[in-house]
Each structure stands twice: as structure tokens, then as C-alpha cells.
Specification:
6-stranded mixed β-sheet; Immunoglobulin-like; single chain; 5 helices; 285 residues; 2 domains; alpha+beta; 6-stranded antiparallel β-sheet
């Protein structure tokens, strides 16, 4: 059985998510599936993180800043009524990835007038602002901030202008795709692939399930797709979901009128999908 392994990743902070080819391996058919599942779980366990709870990080008389939600992360902050200074730091010591993540929620105390807020995000030496902030009033629907409302100085700090007219505003490095988002995606995959099999192959350190979905487990060839080994790789995850949607649509059309050449492709190939390889990292930001 031939295994092709793909990882959903991203090389930039926009939507140009891509699938990076990791390896190809020819394995004995009887051991193939066990090997792949063991490999996936081993990688997931290595990249998992420990849990930590948070509440109000800082506040003024007009608002408070929280990171007590899945993906929330900000090292520290200082708040006045018209300004907010946040410190963004990598989670690892020594730092191994120059792309520290941030996600925080601003909750207003007074809602009768819009809140005008100047936000500064500072980074440690050797780091600089990387991700264009995404904004959301509900934590579900996200919009990139206008380029006119953000600038980066020579030290790498980001200066952001916000006008908040909702009760709360989420500010995140990328669209904050939490566990509920992945649960919906898993259900979507199960609907789109009627021959699929779903399996929980293990649990992370924080006891979040590692779910694998196979579109055609009895096929002779397998393509392995893995997402969110690194939590900031949101564009790659969005691209992988759209890729699987497109494949499902092609399969339905190709197999509608009998066994066409395209339909035979889906008989020969099994897509083994790990939508969320590092749930602890996603939850902890």
C-alpha cells in the first residue's frame, strides 16, 4: 500500500494556505493502517501542551481584557480608558518559532457610546509583529482589520486603532478556530463521505480526543492529511477544509452516472484526515 502524507500548513499570514508534501512511503499492506495511526498519535502527543486558566488580564473604567476562551493568549497588558498596551511572548523557552500568537477579548463596561481605543502590541527582542489582526464580535465570524488601522514600527511593535461599538470585540492573530469549529467540520466530513469511518485514536495531554476520519478505508492507496500541528497554521486548515469539500463535490459528480475514470480514483484512494493534530495548542493559544 502506498502512503502519501500531506500536512496542512501556511507560509504566510494571509489565506495562501498550502499542502506541504512531507514524505512518501511504501509499506506492507497489513501493517500500513496501524503504522499511520501510531505515527499520527505519536506526533500529536509530542506537540501537545499543558493547560492553564485565565480570567481578567487588565482593565480600565471603560473595559476589561480577557483571555479566558479557547485560543486566548496574551502575556500581560496595561489598560487606560483610551489605550491598551499588550505584551506578546512565545510560549517556549528558549523560543523556537518567531511567530508568537495573540488572541484577546475586549469587553466594554459602558455601552452607550463607541469605544475608541489605541492598542500597542509589543514583542520580545528578536521578534516582531507578524499576523494581521482578525476581528470578531462573536468569536465565530472574523474580518481582517483594515490596513489603514494598523502599522508596525521599527522595533516590530504593532499599533492598532479600534472602534468598538459592540459589547465585546475579539482580536486574534488568525481566525480563532476552536474545538466547536472542528466538531462541525468532522460532522461535515461524515455527511460528505458515506463510506467513511471515524475513529478516536488517542487523547492529548489535556484529554482532548485526536480524531481520524477515513473516506474509504478499504482502498488500496492512502493519502494522509494532517492539520494544525502548529496552532497558528489556520490558513492551511481553511485550505484543507475547502480541498476536502471540492473533492467530495467531484466525487458525487463523477460517480453519479456510473463508474467513470474519476469515480475509480475515489475507489482506489483513501483520504485519511486528521483535522486537528494539536488540540491542546489550539485551546491554549
Amino acid at each position: 500500500m502506498k502512503i502519501t502524507v500531506l500536512q496542512a500548513s501556511s507560509s504566510s499570514s494571509d489565506y495562501s494556505g498550502n499542502f506541504s508534501l512531507i514524505c512518501r512511503a511504501n509499506l506492507v499492506k497489513g501493517n500500513c493502517r496501524r503504522f499511520v495511526l501510531l505515527l499520527v498519535f505519536a506526533v500529536a502527543y509530542v506537540v501537545a501542551a499543558a493547560a492553564d486558566g485565565n480570567s481578567v488580564l487588565c482593565e480600565s473604567s471603560l473595559y476589561e481584557v480577557k483571555i479566558d476562551f479557547q485560543g486566548g493568549s496574551l502575556n500581560s497588558c496595561k489598560a487606560t480608558d483610551n489605550s491598551l498596551v499588550g505584551e506578546v511572548a512565545p510560549e517556549d523557552r528558549p523560543p523556537i518559532n518567531p511567530s508568537p500568537w495573540y488572541a484577546f477579548k475586549i469587553e466594554r463596561h459602558v455601552s452607550d457610546t463607541p469605544l475608541e481605543l489605541d492598542v500597542v502590541l509589543n514583542y520580545p527582542s528578536g521578534y516582531q509583529h507578524r499576523y494581521l489582526p482578525k476581528l470578531s464580535s462573536d468569536g465565530v465570524n472574523w474580518t481582517p482589520i483594515s490596513n489603514q488601522n494598523i502599522s508596525v514600527d521599527t522595533k516590530g511593535s504593532a499599533h492598532i486603532s479600534l472602534t468598538i461599538d459592540s459589547d465585546s470585540l475579539y482580536v486574534s492573530a488568525q481566525e480563532n478556530l476552536n474545538l466547536d469549529w472542528y466538531h462541525q467540520w468532522n460532522e461535515e466530513l461524515e455527511r460528505e463521505w458515506p463510506q467513511r469511518e471515524t475513529e478516536t485514536i488517542g487523547y492529548s495531554i489535556a484529554r482532548h480526543p485526536i480524531v481520524v476520519i477515513e473516506t474509504n478505508p478499504r482502498a488500496s492507496k492512502t493519502v494522509l492529511l494532517m492539520g494544525r500541528a502548529h496552532p497558528p497554521e489556520v490558513p492551511g486548515t481553511i485550505a484543507m477544509r475547502e480541498f476536502m469539500r471540492a473533492l467530495a463535490s467531484i466525487r458525487v459528480e463523477a460517480c453519479l452516472n456510473g463508474l467513470t475514470s474519476k469515480c475509480r480514483f475515489f475507489q482506489r484512494y483513501n483520504f485519511l484526515i486528521v483535522p486537528l493534530l494539536n488540540p491542546d495548542g489550539v485551546v491554549l493559544g
